[in-house]
Amino acid sequence: MELTEAVLIAARRTPVGRAGGTFDGISADRLLAPVIRACLRDARIEPHQVEQVVIGNAAGPGGNIARVGALAAGLPVTVPATSIDQQCSSALEAVNFAARLVQTGAARVVVAGGVESVSTAPWRQTRPRNRLETPRLYTRARFTPEGMADPEMGVAAETLAQRYQVSRERQDEFAAESHRRAVRARQTGTFAAEIVPLTGAETQVATDECPRPGLTVERLARLKPAFVPGGTVTAGNCCPLNDGASTVVVVSAQVARGLGHEYALAFADSGVGAVDPVELGLAAVPACANLLARHPELSLADIEVIEFNEAFAAQTLACLDQLGIDPARVNRDGGAIALGHPYGASGAILTTRIFSQLLRTANPRAGRTGLALMAAAGGVGAATLYRTVRLAASG
After folding, report:
1. How far apart are CA 220 and CA 202, in angstroms?
2. Does the structural domain 6-120+239-390 have CATH classification 2.60.40.420?
3. What positions does the domain Thiolase C-terminal occupy (predicted)?
4. Which tens digit of pLDDT belongs to each residue from 275-290?
5. Can you tell me the distance from the alpha carbon of 134 to that of 128, in angstroms, rounded to the nearest whole number?
6. What is the reported pLDDT for 291?
7. Burial code of 31-56, b = ≥16 C-beta within 10 A, e = fewer?
8. Cα distance between residue 389 and residue 367, in whole Å
9. CB contact at 8 A, 114 and 382
10. Helix (H) or strand (E) holding 112
């Protein structure tokens, strides 16, 4: 069967807020709905034309947040919606799933992305086995079966730092640079075209909350280890807890042409991979390798824009070292350490960043490439390859 070309014609995100901060008390569907509406306006698509909604979410209340968000956005009740939980890579897999729907002809117009509201995430507790047992509160589900190692994220990052010799100094330098780039991008308005301003707890919010001006390696060096005594991972060289949402519109190239779009971001391919959960942050490496194995004509050196989800500097640097990627090439406007990591939304945020860098330019052109990479809890990873295409002549 010949595959239909799937292209992205719109990509937006909210500002990213710190948990308990800007968007405290704002539910996931209320974060998601305005972004869906903005994407549809950008794409020149009416709500009734949407055939499917696919949304990633990791820490929410359940209840199919994709459906709740779609209805909150004003989509007709006849539009189906699917939620995906692959933890940190949920939104990237949602975009991949949407693209595969379009490629196979199962849909022509799909809204995809992710959302996370850590500020309103529910508390969880175990069910008592009898009347005398006290319920036990827990913050996250297990990512492995009983009896198998299931390290906390920070502990797993420490493991990578030790095994792959990522020093504290490198981690702090990487974190400081992420903040420097993000602050510069925020100050110069680089993110303005992709952000959907939202009304926060008190005022309208149009910029990311977490990038810190003036954060230096010297200041980061004063922080104590956060997860392992004597370790190297601190609160300063890992991502904060965050709220945010991001979506894209995926359509067939034929639909995009009919809507009058001249350029689009084509979904080229995606890959997945998995590793021992003890080294969970390394899973982006096999995901990338599996993707590129299907594209022998392409090397990492050929890819113009690389966005990597910076959950931890240790984990990011270990992956980049294994892949042979110079960190200077990655996340040119800062990454999750500075901008934040709203788990279920981050993959769509990476995609939106690629969309902006490749298409929101004065002179877009075909043939440019972008790569989104991330690892997720439990030891799984995802990678998605994009390329710009010209659909029609201007005018």
Report:
1. 31
2. no
3. 270-385
4. 999 999 999 999 999 9
5. 6
6. 98
7. bbbbbbbbbbebbebeeebbbbbbbb
8. 6
9. no
10. strand 109-117
d(CA 144, CA 293): 28
Distance of CA 207 to the CA centre of its chain: 17
- Cβ 13 vs Cβ 348: under 8 Å: yes
Contact 161, 233 (CB under 8 A): yes
| 231 pLDDT above the threshold of 80 | yes
pTM comes to: 0.97
Amino acid making up residue 149? A
CA distance 393 to 236: 48
> What is the helix (H) or strand (E) element at residue 117, kind and residue range?
strand 109-117
Arithmetic mean of pLDDT over the chain: 96
Q: 191: Cβ–Cβ under 8 A, 6 or more apart, which residues? A: 185, 207, 208, 333, 356
Spatial contact of 205 and 17, defined as CB atoms under 8 Å apart: yes
The DSSP symbol for 123 reads: P
Give the residue among 166, 152, 158, 163 at the shortest CA–CA distance from 317: 166
Catalytic pick from 88, 238, 239, 288? 88
Does the pLDDT value for residue 361 go beyond 70?
A: yes
Domain borders along the chain are 6-120+239-390
Q: Is 341 in the active site?
A: yes
330 vs 372: CA distance, rounded Å = 10
What pLDDT band is residue 61 in, cutting at 50, 70 and 90? confident
- Per the listing, tokens 């972004």 go with 35
Instruction: Determine whether 179 is an active site residue.
Output: no
Residues 367, 269: contact at Cβ < 8 Å?
A: no
Question: Please, are residues 370 and 307 in contact by the beta-carbon 8 Å criterion?
Answer: yes
Catalytic residue among 179, 238, 319, 341, which? 341
Residue 135 DSSP one-character state: P
Beta bridge partners of residue 116, listed in sequence order:
244
- Alpha carbons 387 and 5: distance in angstroms, whole number: 12
